[in-house]
Amino acid sequence: MLSKKVTDCNAHGQDSSYFLGWEEYEKNPYHETKNPNGIIQMGLAENQLSFDLLETWLEKNPDATSFKKDDQSIFKDLALFQDYHGLPSFKNALARFMSDIRGNAITFDPNNLVLTAGATSANETLMFCVANPGDAFLVPTPYYPGFDRDLKWRTGAEIVPIQCSSSNSFKITKSALEDAYEQAQKKDLKVKGILVTNPSNPLGTTLTLHELDLLVNFISNKNIHLISDEVYSGTVFGSSNFISIMEVLKNKNLANTEVSKRVHIVYSLSKDLGLPGFRIGAIYSKNDDIVSAATKMSSFGLVSSQTQYLLSEMLSDQKFTSKYLWENRRRVKNRQETLVKGLLKAGIRCLSSNAGLFCWVDMRNLLSSNTFEGEMELWKKIVYDVRLNISPGSSCHCSEPGWFRVCFANMSDQTLTQAMKRVKSFVDFMSKKKNQSRHQPVLQNSARRTKSLPKWVFSLSLNQLEVGEQC
């Protein structure tokens, strides 16, 4: 008596280890004083590093939160019916903010913006606009685990992975693109486009100009679409600059061609401003048909007028946004370096990154076997014994076991320090355990000699083991 969406809930992807880790965290969340032995959440790509900057702006601009303009209340105007096109003032401010993030190398026309309730809604809406049920999108691996839900669950679209490897730091290659396209054809799937995240989630890297050129050339030759999810474009902190796909089109003189009508950007204020609860997302497209259809679809997930007004006031303050972007990047960079150094002390290395709120961490040396079973065994130890929720690479469809996404911006400095202590203790215990197993035959041969040792030696060893198991 119920729909397939209800009876086939597994299609949502909720049984992924990415979501299961969250469930375990929610059962036993860490708190510095109330629950210091709880699970520390390192699976949430949330930016909590710059709230003080936003709160200071709000204190200095009380009219924005009081819904006043020139000392006159506009509450009634905002509370009454608004159509789904969005407030012009907000769309203008958002378009300008997107240009500022990209160093004003390109400009965005607010008439080509469609507001959505977050990037999740934006990506799904584009799927509805471009793909029919059963059509496929190619997505480079590793990719954000939520895409299995966002792109597929309600749309009926399919994902075909573009297999990338650690041999070249997971960069997209021409051969990988062609292989993915051929795999889709073998499955009788019609490829409608490619979706990339730039900067990448979970890699924390920006796409190179070479990769972007490959993508543009590929979609031109195959006559398909390209969706560039650029929600982390304001968190680029390394020496490599962020290059938007729109900048590539401009430099290749494709800005006003048919190819440009098949290139679309997804953006959000959830990451760069740290406002996921405000549900502010956007689609940018030069395809009039997609803008028209997506605008109509947005009526199923509108952004409140009050939210739009508040953020239009904030984003229109360019002196503030300029200061915010600079300071936020500095803080994200410092926090990323703290994580990388903390892991390095434990003998764990990360993929070199320059953006995002996470690191792609190489734990292959800790695997009991170089398999995904070995990865899941290690992940369970980290969640239940070390009490850290991190995302295993298999949940991101990584083709190589032993990689993990570890987030660093959703916690305090003290909590991150505690997390690194736990990791160090765990790795030390694992190394000690491995060394003991190597010398086990020698220990067995000397069993007679141990009988003469005092009882306190055995008691001390047992206590050390218990401490190690608790870390």
From TrEMBL:
The organism of origin for this protein: Artemisia annua
A biological process from GO: ethylene biosynthetic process
Swiss-Prot/TrEMBL catalytic activity: S-adenosyl-L-methionine = 1-aminocyclopropane-1-carboxylate + S-methyl-5'-thioadenosine + H(+)
MF annotations from Gene Ontology: 1-aminocyclopropane-1-carboxylate synthase activity; pyridoxal phosphate binding; transaminase activity
The keyword Aminoacyl-tRNA synthetase appears for this protein: no
Enzyme class: lyase
Entry EC number(s): 4.4.1.14
Domain of life: Eukaryota
Family: Belongs to the class-I pyridoxal-phosphate-dependent aminotransferase family.
Metabolic or biological pathway: Alkene biosynthesis; ethylene biosynthesis via S-adenosyl-L-methionine; ethylene from S-adenosyl-L-methionine: step 1/2
InterPro entries: Aminotransferase_I/II_large, Ethylene_sulfur-biosynth, NHTrfase_class1_PyrdxlP-BS, PyrdxlP-dep_Trfase, PyrdxlP-dep_Trfase_major, PyrdxlP-dep_Trfase_small
Cofactor(s) of this protein: pyridoxal 5'-phosphate
Keywords: Aminotransferase, Ethylene biosynthesis, Fruit ripening, Lyase, Pyridoxal phosphate, S-adenosyl-L-methionine, Transferase
Name of this chain's protein: 1-aminocyclopropane-1-carboxylate synthase
Signal peptide as annotated in the record: none
UniProt domain Aminotransferase class I/classII large: residue ranges: 40-423
